[in-house]
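Priority: medium. Attachment 1 of 2:
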């Protein structure tokens, strides 16, 4: 079940919220848990058992980690507990990738298992690992109530698209939270903005990308239009889902971490990754990079740590070589920036921003490609080396047809509108007008998004594979 679907918007979510606010405080986690299991089972009924099994494993592991008397025992069991979780993730997400590459290397023909990928397994596996490590480190207590732990792991607002929640951040909220009228209003506003990002902007950009792929008249300009639209589609699709998740969480009384902060206004790759998929970046920083020694080691080991983290970041996104190349691409850029380039980028805002945009749109061509062969063909063609013409009548047609949505998406990827509205809200002269305008805007956004969902069949979810 997608957030951007009629069944979710007009049936599932209203019923869940009505029930949530009716039941007493002691039953609210149960409502979320049951709703989350139903939500997950809607699309993956046979894989609910995998998530439930991992929840029980996390629950038992918390008790065992708490009972271990020596640091050595705790460390050994943590490795075992995390290893089991990674084993589940590795089997369901990567086993066919490993078999395929084993066949290519050895020349054998081991049959693929054709294992289906359970939706959201990458997200809830990382949340379970967060719980285990937080208990091991003593930054959180073991959870005695399995309902609360299961609620944390399976929470439907962010189950299939994040943001990745830390148990140490959620521990107190599972026990005590409140949702007043201001929280509900803020949550509705955030959800509606996310819905607009996903349904109106991301889906429209996705249609343009699909038309490019089916076109027989690709040109250099069309390749760049695709690359820009593709990078923006990924951003609005993912940040839109994050906004909807944060919004629903706020309505329920939870304060989820932010996941995006206008990454395309960055002036370096280093800054970009402080603003893009923040919860994933900080997860790898705290649970992989720092335990490896971070930057408090020799320069060679520091570079090694960066490469390890970014190859793993790429591999987390999917079982394909292009994801690992994508991660390595960013890892090497970060090393170059930290060692030599950052001080030069800071001296020229225009150059640094152009540099950032070109490299990120190229990176997402790699990210979205079927394989590295396709990615390299696209990148060569973007720079006129693919034997394609500069421009054509068809390219101009698509540019005219989608020029407005491209312009809107570029503006929406900056804080310009937010800053303008903020200034108007701070003015006593316009405050009431802004308040009324916001209500009308959100209502119209819901109507337009609903119309898109009813009339359109193009509503992909890019993050199903994670």
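Attachment 2 of 2:
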């Amino acid at each position: 079940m997608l957030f951007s679907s009629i069944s979710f918007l007009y049936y599932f979510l209203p019923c869940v919220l009505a029930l949530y606010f009716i039941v007493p405080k002691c039953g609210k986690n149960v409502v979320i848990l049951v709703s989350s299991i139903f939500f997950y089972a809607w699309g993956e009924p046979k894989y609910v058992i995998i998530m439930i099994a991992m929840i029980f494993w996390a629950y038992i592991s918390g008790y065992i980690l708490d009972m271990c008397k020596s640091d050595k025992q705790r460390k050994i069991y943590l490795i075992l507990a995390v290893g089991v979780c990674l084993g589940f993730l590795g089997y369901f997400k990567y086993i066919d990738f490993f078999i395929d590459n084993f066949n290519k290397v050895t020349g054998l023909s081991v049959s693929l298992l054709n294992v289906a990928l359970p939706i959201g397994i990458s997200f809830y596996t990382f949340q379970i690992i967060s719980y285990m490590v937080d208990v091991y480190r003593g930054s959180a207590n073991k959870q005695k109530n399995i309902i609360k732990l299961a609620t944390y792991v399976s929470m439907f607002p962010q189950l299939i698209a994040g943001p990745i929640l830390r148990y140490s951040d959620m521990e107190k909220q599972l026990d005590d939270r409140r949702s007043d009228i201001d929280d509900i209003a803020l949550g509705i506003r955030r959800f509606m903005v996310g819905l607009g990002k996903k349904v109106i902007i991301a889906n429209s950009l996705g249609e343009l990308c699909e038309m490019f792929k089916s076109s027989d008249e690709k040109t250099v300009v069309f390749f760049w239009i695709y690359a820009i639209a593709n990078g923006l589609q990924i951003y609005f699709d993912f940040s839109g889902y994050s906004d909807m998740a944060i919004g629903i969480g706020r309505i329920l009384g939870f304060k989820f971490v932010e996941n995006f902060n206008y990454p395309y206004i960055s002036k370096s790759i280093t800054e970009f990754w402080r603003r893009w998929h923040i919860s994933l970046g900080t997860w790898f920083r705290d649970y992989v990079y720092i335990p490896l020694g971070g930057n408090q080691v020799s320069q060679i080991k520091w570079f090694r740590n960066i490469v390890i983290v970014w190859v793993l970041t790429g591999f987390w996104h999917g079982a394909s070589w292009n994801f690992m190349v994508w991660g390595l691409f960013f890892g090497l850029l970060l090393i170059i920036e930290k060692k030599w380039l950052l001080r030069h980028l800071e001296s020229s805002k225009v150059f640094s921003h152009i540099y950032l945009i070109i490299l990120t749109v190229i990176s997402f061509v790699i990210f979205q490609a079927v394989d590295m062969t396709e990615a390299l063909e696209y990148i060569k063609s973007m720079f006129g080396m693919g034997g394609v013409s500069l421009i054509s009548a068809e390219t101009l047609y698509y540019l005219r047809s989608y020029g407005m949505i491209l312009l809107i998406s570029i503006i929406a990827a900056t804080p310009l509108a937010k800053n303008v509205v903020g200034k108007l809200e701070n003015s006593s002269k316009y405050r009431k007008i802004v308040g009324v305008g916001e209500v009308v805007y959100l209502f119209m956004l819901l109507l337009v998004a609903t119309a898109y969902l009813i009339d359109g069949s193009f509503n992909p979810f890019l993050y199903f594979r994670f």
